[in-house]
Specification:
By secondary structure, the protein is an alpha/beta fold. The protein is built from 8 helices and 8 strands. It has a 6-stranded mixed sheet, sandwiched between helices. A two-stranded parallel sheet has the order 6-7. The structure holds N-[2-(1H-imidazol-4-yl)ethyl]acetamide and zinc ion (ZN).
Length: 328
C-alpha cells in the first residue's frame, strides 16, 4: 500500500515537473524572438520582369528613358518624396550619357537614416559572352541591375505597408555599367565605372546628406547564389558587414551568407565610402572559384529572366528588411 502511494507520488511529480519545466527554461533565458519579415519574392520578380520589358536600359536609349519614368512612378507610390538627379556623365570613350539617379525617401526629417542602393542601368556590351559575335550586344541585365532594383522596389512597397520610424533612402544609380569593353581595356584608363554613384557622392540629393550606413545590392538574383564578404566592404565597413551577415545567420541563411572573403571590387559603394565617408557594404554574388569573379551569366546574353532565382530574391529581401527592422 505504502509502495503504491510512493509510486503514485513519483509519477505525479514526474508529470508535474514535465509540465512545468518548459516554463522554467523560458523564464531563465528569454531569447529575443526572431520575427521573419514579410517579403514577397513574386512581387520582386515581377519588378525585374517589368524592367526587362522595356528592353536593355542602356543610357541614351528609349528603353532607358521609359524605365526611368517607371522607376520614378513606382517609387512615388511607396515613398514620401522622390528626387530625380539629371546629369550628363562622360563614358570611357568620351560619349555623353544622359543619366538619371532616382531616389525615394522615407521620413525625410529623421536623423537616424539607412541608405539602400542598386544600379538600374544595364550593360551595353555582352563582352563576357562565349559567342564573340555578342560582344557589342546589350544585355537584359536581369541579375546585373534588375535584381537589386526589383528587391528594393519590393522593400519600398513593404515599408509602405508595414511602416518605418527611421529614415530610409533608396537610391537607384545610373550609368554604373558603361565601362570599357574587355577587348579594349588596354586603350583606356580612369574610373569609368559607377558614373552615377560618383556623381551622387559628390552631389548628394540633399546638401548635408548623412546616413548611419548603406547597403548596396548588386547581382542578388542568381541561381543558388552564395554571398561572400566582399573585400571593399570589409575594408570600409566590416562592422556593418558582420551585422548583416549575423542577421542572415539568425534567419537560418548560414549557407547562403558565407564568412569567406571575396576580392575587393570597384562598385558603387566604393565612392559612397571614399567620397561621402558613409560606411557602405555591397551584397554581391562572387563565387569562390569563378574565373571572372562573378557568376556565369555576368555580362553575357544569359543574364536574363530564366536565370533569376526567386529563392535568392527572398533571402536577400528578408535579410535587408530584417536589418532595417532591427534599427527601428
Ligand atoms: C568591375 O568589374 C569593374 N566592377 C564590378 C561592378 C559591376 C559590374 N557590377 C555589375 N557590373
Ligand atoms: Zn555589370
Amino acid at each position: 500500500m505504502e509502495k503504491i502511494f510512493i509510486y503514485t507520488l513519483m509519477i505525479g511529480m514526474l508529470f508535474f515537473s514535465c509540465q512545468h519545466s518548459p516554463k522554467t527554461t523560458t523564464i531563465q533565458d528569454t531569447p529575443k524572438e526572431i520575427v521573419r519579415p514579410e517579403f514577397n519574392e513574386d512581387s520582386a520578380f515581377a519588378y525585374i520582369e517589368k524592367q526587362i520589358s522595356f528592353g536593355p536600359r542602356v543610357p541614351n536609349t528609349i528603353a532607358h528613358e521609359k524605365c526611368a519614368d517607371f522607376l520614378k512612378e513606382e517609387l512615388s507610390k511607396w515613398t514620401d518624396t522622390v528626387f530625380v538627379q539629371d546629369f550628363e556623365a562622360t563614358a570611357y570613350n568620351g560619349l555623353k550619357l544622359k543619366s538619371k539617379n532616382i531616389i525615394g525617401v522615407f521620413n525625410k526629417e529623421a536623423n537616424n537614416r539607412i541608405l539602400l542602393a542598386a544600379h538600374w542601368d544595364s550593360r551595353p556590351y555582352a563582352d563576357n559572352d562565349k559567342d564573340l559575335a555578342n560582344s557589342r550586344q546589350a544585355i537584359d541585365g536581369a541579375n546585373d541591375g534588375g535584381s537589386g532594383v526589383g528587391i528594393l522596389l519590393e522593400i519600398a512597397r513593404q515599408l509602405h505597408l508595414q511602416g518605418t520610424n527611421i529614415g530610409i533612402d533608396i537610391v537607384f544609380f545610373d550609368s554604373e555599367d558603361y565601362g570599357e569593353p574587355q577587348d579594349e581595356r588596354h586603350l583606356y584608363e580612369g574610373e569609368n565605372w559607377c558614373l552615377g554613384s560618383q556623381y551622387w557622392a559628390k552631389n548628394p540629393h540633399l546638401r548635408y546628406y548623412k546616413a548611419k550606413y548603406g547597403i548596396l545590392l548588386d547581382m542578388v538574383g542568381g541561381k543558388n547564389a552564395v554571398f561572400c564578404k566582399e573585400g571593399t566592404s570589409k575594408y570600409f565597413a566590416s562592422t556593418i558587414q558582420d551585422k548583416v551577415w549575423n542577421n542572415a545567420h539568425k534567419l537560418g541563411y548560414t549557407g547562403k551568407f558565407s564568412n569567406n572573403v571575396s576580392n575587393a571590387i570597384t562598385d558603387d559603394h566604393l565612392y559612397v565610402n571614399s567620397i561621402l565617408s558613409i560606411p557602405m557594404i555591397d551584397i554581391i554574388e562572387m563565387p569562390v572559384y569563378s574565373p571572372t569573379g562573378f557568376n556565369e551569366t555576368w555580362h553575357t546574353m544569359n543574364d536574363n529572366l530564366d536565370n533569376i532565382d526567386k529563392n535568392t530574391l527572398k533571402i536577400v529581401g528578408e535579410v535587408v528588411l530584417f536589418t532595417l527592422k532591427n534599427e527601428q
